[in-house]
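Question (not urgent): is this output format expected?
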Amino acid sequence: MATTIQISDFARKKLEAMKIHHRETFNDVIEIMIEDHLELSEETKKDLEIARKQIEEGKVVSHEEVKRRLGL
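Got this back:
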């Protein structure tokens, strides 16, 4: 049985960004998130949250920049 839920525009945009393929549904994305959440240790969850915050704050280095720094 399907259920309709209300989500914020912010949540919808985040779910849309998490799609691997444009034909993937929000339900698919949510199921993957649930599976991933159940399989992660508490330490890994904390590390992922730190990484998400760093990404949101722009504290990232592109692949090209890493290669440049390493002289590759």
